[in-house]
TrEMBL record:
<keyword id="KW-0472">Membrane</keyword>
<dbReference type="InterPro" id="IPR036179">
    <property type="entry name" value="Ig-like_dom_sf"/>
</dbReference>
<protein>
    <submittedName>
        <fullName>V-set and transmembrane domain-containing protein 5</fullName>
    </submittedName>
</protein>
<feature type="transmembrane region" description="Helical">
    <location>
        <begin position="130"/>
        <end position="154"/>
    </location>
</feature>
<dbReference type="GO" id="GO:0046847">
    <property type="term" value="P:filopodium assembly"/>
</dbReference>
<feature type="signal peptide">
    <location>
        <begin position="1"/>
        <end position="20"/>
    </location>
</feature>
<dbReference type="Pfam" id="PF11465">
    <property type="entry name" value="Receptor_2B4"/>
</dbReference>
<dbReference type="InterPro" id="IPR015631">
    <property type="entry name" value="CD2/SLAM_rcpt"/>
</dbReference>
<dbReference type="InterPro" id="IPR013783">
    <property type="entry name" value="Ig-like_fold"/>
</dbReference>
<keyword id="KW-0812">Transmembrane</keyword>
<dbReference type="GO" id="GO:0005886">
    <property type="term" value="C:plasma membrane"/>
</dbReference>
<keyword id="KW-1133">Transmembrane helix</keyword>
<dbReference type="GO" id="GO:0030424">
    <property type="term" value="C:axon"/>
</dbReference>
<keyword id="KW-0732">Signal</keyword>
<dbReference type="GO" id="GO:1904891">
    <property type="term" value="P:positive regulation of excitatory synapse assembly"/>
</dbReference>
<dbReference type="GO" id="GO:0030425">
    <property type="term" value="C:dendrite"/>
</dbReference>
<feature type="domain" description="Natural killer cell receptor 2B4 immunoglobulin">
    <location>
        <begin position="47"/>
        <end position="114"/>
    </location>
</feature>
Length: 184
């Protein structure tokens, strides 16, 4: 167990410099998801691993660590990054600003280094947009129903008013005819 840990920390299994494998170079994620930026490196000696994020908002150093010695996480990522001994990092609760290029540099103690890149695309959850559209549609349908009921009531009131007026006109015309016949 101690021997295997030392072997992992010192990268004794890889003769001839540093090698790095990036199994997935393009990652699609949605907002609030956790993502794993998976890599696997091997080297002759003790390695230093550094991750940087480059986007339209600029370049940010995420984390740097030396096998078995220290881990230096940027304040911006302090509670959002988990490091793994194989060089991978997990980024928690991604947002739109996390989209961009992630560069890893693995430097061996003898000065040999290698680089890798992972592109991360972050998308907003479409269900929230659909929810908004559904609520808006329900609201517009309710307003339409209320307006239709209001128009129906106005129409009924108008018909009742016209009937009463027509009845009054008929009654007043009848009275005039009766008055005319009496005067003659």
């Amino acid at each position: 167990s101690i021997t295997s840990t030392l072997t992992t920390l010192l990268c004794l299994s890889a003769p001839g410099g540093v090698s790095l494998v990036v199994p997935q170079s393009n990652i699609n994620a949605t907002v609030a998801q956790n993502i794993l930026l998976s890599v696997e490196y091997s080297c002759r000696g003790v390695a230093t691993v550094e991750w940087k994020h480059v986007s339209s908002w600029g370049t940010t150093k995420i984390v740097e660590w030396k096998s078995g010695n220290y881990v230096n996480i940027s304040m911006v990522y302090k509670d959002r990054v988990t490091t793994f001994e194989n060089g991978s990092i997990q980024l928690l609760n991604v947002g739109m600003r996390d989209a961009g290029y992630y560069f890893i540099t693995v430097t061996e103690e003898y000065g040999t280094n290698t680089y890798g890149t992972i592109i991360v695309n972050v998308y907003e959850i479409i269900y929230e947009d659909l929810h908004f559209v559904a609520v808006l549609f329900a609201f517009l349908a309710a307003v339409s129903a209320i307006l239709i009921c209001f128009m129906w009531l106005c129409n009924k009131s108008l018909h009742l008013f016209q009937k009463k007026r027509a009845h009054k006109l008929t009654a007043s015309t009848t009275e005039e005819i009766e008055l005319e016949t009496i005067e003659c």
